[in-house]
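Backbone shape codes:
***
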Amino acid sequence: MRKEPPALSGLYLEDSYFLGLLVSGATLRIRGLFALTRDHEAYAAPASGEQHCYREGEIALTGVQVTEWVAGKPTLLRDPDGSMDLGSLSIGDRNGGYQISTEWFDMICRADALSVTLD
């Protein structure tokens, strides 16, 4: 298991969902439906029928320099509510940078900063 960056403290990425990727210049924004742990300041009791407290938001990496990009082979699935399931997300430290993995891509990059914002 890769070590997660400290900025991701309070997010349980193993049960979070990748929603999309936005790129603008040297800023990369990863949209997600994040499972929050009890120690996250925005944590609340899980909604009825859910295992975790979920919140949409984004992980922003600024000053990004991608050093490796491997396209994935995603399988498009629908959740029971009919919404598109784009798969999971993992982010870990990698040689002073980050390794970001989804079903859509596996990327290694360096960034000046990584931050999390919840909607």
Remarks:
- The mean pLDDT is 89.
